[in-house]
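INFO  loader      accepted 1 record
INFO  loader      residues=146
INFO  predictor   begin
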Amino acid sequence: MRKWIYLLIIMFAVSQSACAGDVITHDAKKLPEAARTFIATYFPDAHVSHIKIESELFRPVKYEVLLTDRTEIDFDHKGQWKEVDCNDAPVPAGLVPAYVSRYLEETFPGTFVVKIEREYREMEVDLSNGWSITFNAAGEVIDVDD
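INFO  predictor   done
INFO  writer      dumping tokens
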């Protein structure tokens, strides 16, 4: 009986890895409409360099987009942004919540957000001075790293 259980586990693992896979494309039409609208709105001068579409058997699809201006954007399966990394350039102001902007003006004047990441109940921003700040859903600072 154990042999059958081990065999089933191995077959399941092999079938999962066979069904999962990453696709790399240059075709922006492979992105959900919300993701294409996001790119057109916030990065009108940049074009899609390439898109990595990650899929796994029991997980939704993820999209990792690299733009020609070196901006990296991660989208979920619905096309909602999860992370925007502009390297050393400022993240578009429209993506930075007002509570983050207020905190930066008061605490870190002269800095700007170069990377922003949102998760279920948190938002993390990386600043131009190398600091990283995490906010909770209420807009309160819960972590600061240098």
